[in-house]
C-alpha cells in the first residue's frame, strides 16, 4: 500500500497528511490517542474515525492533516468486533468498567438457547443508546449526566447487525464475533441479549478488528509509534488517502489543477476511466500523482469538486476534526 505523499498541506506547521491506524490499548480513551498522535506528528490536525470505549482495544483510524477533510468519504463503513460477554451480571455502563447493578442467581442458559437468542439480533434492529456515551443532550454528553446520577430518555436508533457468530461458550463467558453498521453499541447488544435470556449481561472485553477500509493488519501499537516518532520516521507509516478512498483516478493538466484548486469545476471533463455516468466519483490528481480533490461527474459532463484537498499557495485552510461521538 502506498504511503502518504500528496498535495494540499496547509502552512509550514501542517505536518504530514494521511491516515494512521492505531491499535488502541485498553484503559486509553480515543482522545488520549489523538493527543499522542498530535505529539508524534507535530500537528494539531488529527481526528479519529469512530470512538472506542476506554475498555476496548483494536483498530482506531486517525485522519492526519488534510486527510481530515476526507473523513466524510471514508467513515460510516461496516465495523467488525470480537467481544467477550459475561452473562449473569448487569453494570451501569454495560461493560466491566461499570458498577454492578444486578446479579442473576439462577442457572445460566445452555448454549443452544444462547445461540437462538443471539440469532434474533441479526438484521436491522433498534438500539437505545446507553447513558454512558458521548451523545449530547442540550450540549452535555450523556456520560456526564450519568455520572451525576441523572438519566434522560433516549430514542431508539436503527442499526444493522450483518453477522453474529459464537466463538465459545463456557458459562458465564460468551465469546462472539460480529459485523455491524456504524453507530452500533456492542455494550447495548450484550445487555439486550442478557435481558432476552433473562439473566443480564455486560461486555467484559471488546476488540475492534476492522473499521471501514481499515483493519488489524494496518494497525500499529503505541510503543511502535513512539519509536517511529523518535526516529523521525512516523510519516512513513501513514496510509495514502488515494489508497483509502479507492476511487478511480483522473489526472488533470496544469490549467485544470489551478481551477480545481480554487474550487471550480473542470469542464468539459477529461477522459474518464470506465463507462462513467453522472453521479460517479473520482479522485483527481496532478502529473506527480498527488491528490487534488474528490469530484463528481454531473449531468453537464463537468467534474464538480465535492472536497478540495490541494489549494493554491497562500490560501487559508480551516483545520477540522471529524470525531465520531459514538462509542462501541
Q: How is this fold's topology laid out?
A:
Layout: E1 18-24, H1 30-41, E2 46-48, E3 57-64, H2 71-74, E4 79-87, E5 89-91, E6 100-103, H3 111-119, E7 123-127, E8 136-137, E9 140-141, H4 142-147, E10 157-170, E11 173-180, H5 186-197, E12 201-211, E13 214-215, H6 222-230, H7 241-245, E14 249-251, H8 254-261, E15 281-285, E16 291-297, E17 303-308
Parallel strand pairs: 3-12, 14-15
Antiparallel strand pairs: 1-3, 2-3, 4-11, 4-12, 5-6, 7-10, 8-9, 10-11, 12-13, 15-16, 16-17
Give keywords.
single chain, 328 residues, alpha+beta, Pseudouridine synthase, Archaeosine Trna-guanine Transglycosylase, Chain: A, domain 4, 3 domains, nine-stranded mixed beta sheet, four-stranded mixed beta sheet, 8 helices, 17 strands, 30% strand, elongated, disordered N terminus, disordered C terminus
Written account of the structure:
By secondary structure, the chain is α+β, with helices and mostly antiparallel strands. The chain has helices spanning 30-41, 71-74, 111-119, 142-147, 186-197, 222-230, 241-245, 254-261, and strands at residues 18-24, 46-48, 57-64, 79-87, 89-91, 100-103, 123-127, 136-137, 140-141, 157-170, 173-180, 201-211, 214-215, 249-251, 281-285, 291-297, 303-308. Residues 1-14 and 312-327 have low confidence and may be disordered. The chain folds into 3 domains: 18-77 and 213-242, Pseudouridine synthase (2-Layer Sandwich), CATH 3.30.2350; 79-211, Pseudouridine synthase; 245-308, PUA domain (Archaeosine Trna-guanine Transglycosylase, Chain: A, domain 4), CATH 2.30.130.10. The protein is elongated. Strands 1, 2, 3, 4, 7, 10, 11, 12 and 13 form a 9-stranded mixed β-sheet that branches. Strands 14-15-16-17 form a 4-stranded mixed β-sheet. A two-stranded antiparallel ribbon has the order 5-6.
Amino acid at each position: 500500500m502506498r504511503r502518504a505523499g500528496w498535495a494540499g498541506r496547509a502552512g509550514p506547521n501542517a505536518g504530514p497528511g494521511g491516515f494512521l491506524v492505531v491499535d488502541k490499548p485498553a484503559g486509553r480513551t480515543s482522545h488520549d490517542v489523538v493527543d499522542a498522535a498530535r505529539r508524534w506528528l507535530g500537528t494539531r490536525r488529527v481526528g479519529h474515525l469512530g470512538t472506542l470505549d476506554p475498555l476496548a482495544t483494536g483498530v482506531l483510524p486517525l485522519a492526519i492533516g488534510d486527510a481530515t477533510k476526507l473523513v466524510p468519504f471514508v467513515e460510516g463503513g461496516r465495523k467488525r468486533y470480537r467481544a467477550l460477554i459475561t452473562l449473569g451480571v448487569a453494570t451501569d455502563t454495560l461493560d466491566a468498567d461499570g458498577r454492578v447493578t444486578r446479579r442473576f442467581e439462577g442457572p445460566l442458559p445452555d448454549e443452544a438457547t444462547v445461540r437462538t437468542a443471539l440469532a434474533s439480533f441479526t438484521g436491522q434492529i433498534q438500539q437505545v443508546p446507553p447513558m454512558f456515551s458521548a451523545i449530547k443532550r442540550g450540549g452535555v454528553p450523556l456520560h456526564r449526566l450519568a455520572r451525576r446520577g441523572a438519566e434522560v430518555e433516549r430514542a431508539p436508533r436503527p442499526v444493522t447487525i450483518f453477522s453474529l457468530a459464537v466463538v465459545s461458550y463456557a458459562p458465564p463467558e460468551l465469546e462472539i464475533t460480529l459485523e455491524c453498521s456504524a453507530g452500533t453499541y456492542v455494550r447495548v447488544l450484550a445487555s439486550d441479549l442478557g435481558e432476552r435470556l433473562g439473566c443480564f449481561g455486560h461486555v467484559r472485553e471488546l476488540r475492534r478488528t476492522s473499521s471501514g477500509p481499515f483493519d488489524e493488519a494496518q494497525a500499529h501499537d503505541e510503543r511502535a509509534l513512539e519509536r517511529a516518532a523518535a526516529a523521525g520516521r512516523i510519516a512513513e507509516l501513514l496510509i495514502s488517502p488515494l489508497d483509502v478512498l479507492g476511487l478511480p483516478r483522473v489526472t488533470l493538466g496544469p490549467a485544470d489543477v489551478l481551477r480545481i484548486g480554487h474550487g471550480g469545476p473542470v469542464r468539459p471533463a477529461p477522459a474518464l476511466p470506465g463507462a462513467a455516468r453522472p453521479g460517479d466519483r473520482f479522485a483527481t490528481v496532478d502529473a506527480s500523482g498527488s491528490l487534488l480533490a474528490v469530484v463528481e461527474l454531473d449531468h453537464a459532463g463537468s467534474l464538480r469538486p465535492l472536497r478540495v484537498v490541494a489549494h493554491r499557495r497562500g490560501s487559508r485552510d480551516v483545520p477540522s476534526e471529524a470525531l465520531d461521538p459514538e462509542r462501541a
